[in-house]
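Onboarding guide, step 5: your first structure request.
Type a short instruction followed by the sequence, for example:

Predict the 3D structure of this protein.
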Amino acid sequence: MSIELTSRSIGFEEIYFDNYVEQSVESDINLPDYCPDIMRIIRCTLSNSVTNSKLIGDRATADGNSKIRLVYADEKNNVFCYDQDYPFSKYAELNSAFDNAFLSCSVKTEYVNCRAVNKRRVDIRGAISLRFRVVGNKSVNLISDACGEGVQLKRKGIDIDDIVAVATKNFEVSQVENVGDTNAGIGKIIDAFVSPILNESKIIKGKVLIKGELAVRVVYCADSSDNETCTLCCNIPFNEIIEAAAITDDCKVDVRMLVTRISAEPKTDNDGEYRYMNINAEINAQVTAYKKQSIRVVTDAYSTETEIEAKYTPLEFMKLESTVKENIICKQSLDISSLKPKKVYAFSVSAPESRCVAEKDRIIIKGKVPVNLIVIDSDGVPVLCEREADFEFSKPFDEAETLICNPQVYPGGCSVTLSGDGKADFKAELFINGTVSKNVKENVLTSLEIEEGKGKKDKKPSVVIYFCSGGESVWEIARRYNTTVEEIMQENDLSADFLENKRMLLIPVK
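The system replies with structure tokens like these:
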């Protein structure tokens, strides 16, 4: 007794590990002699970066740095900044070691508190979370055909986008920018932010060429007596090649980029003045390649001759429907009237957390852009103000409620203008990038064998009269009476394997 099986391999992106590990930040800042005394702390932030990450056996490790940035006011209400590095090293224990897996690591600030012990010393306490994400390309063998021992198969054809490759690459982008001859020199950096913008992805002989730019925004104190702030905005282009031998010209690719490190440091010109900005960023790019396939899976099986053991695995097959690549404008009037603002001294933005909501005929991407403002109030005192600006984007799709979208949203150019009614008019360009997909869930046959210790089924040739109530499939009737779909259809001159109306059937039973 034997059953001959035919199988095929299907690729899936599998997330082997995705978890957060917390790292405490505990430090003291003792101001050097050239810094004025602290009269009031305005803001304390952690600018986090991952300098190195790797997989070693069943452990994921990451080294990085949290730059503690203290913004404070002296006795004359002038604003000053001071930076101090806080290096860290962290690891996560995985379930096991994984072959051909890729690690991406990101870090975010959970909280940071500071307390001025005296006019020269500040106590820092905070925590950051490191996200370790390990992904790979997993192959699953699906049974596509079986013959022998009277095996009957119920097949279903589906269109999918098979994952053929997952590849990742860390690359560095750097550029030196001139702040301009008319501006004052660079004092201290208040904030540095970068958005990765993908303009093009192209497949070339087993490689993916990605082209884009980094939208950079750096806010700094001018090195002048009036202690004003300046903003440097620039775009830094990049071209990178990511290798993946399994990628062919007929594939589709999804490219995701993550900023793992950003630094902006003043640099002197020939006269020794800080008029250049040295900008350096590291990006983690992950490419997932898909190839369109039409496959037939087995969703049910039985034998008319012997007892069999069939095992089924629930799988989600993905089908790419479209891509979302849009630029939108986020505008909102932020109420800061309680602060009695005289002017906005400086502001910074962060990448928003977004979510996608599927409705009947469209998908809606929405979220909030974090905006942090340093405002000079009516008494000339600098104060911190934290607000959020809402954004929403929608795109029409047929049967949108069945679709899935996991977008990335990054802010580009932005501005804040103080209006006369105590409100700040915020405006920002947002870059939205993502894929729209549909998941098809099926229980598919992955194992089939004859049950040990059980013999052949008893064969009692006969004909059964069966009264169909309508809305039944011939497959279910054949399975119930241990016969075949073909014999029932032939015996009753049926042209379709689904019976919509009531009728009598002759069932040849084996």
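Each response can be followed by summary notes, for example: The chain has four domains: 10-137, 155-301, 323-441, 458-510.
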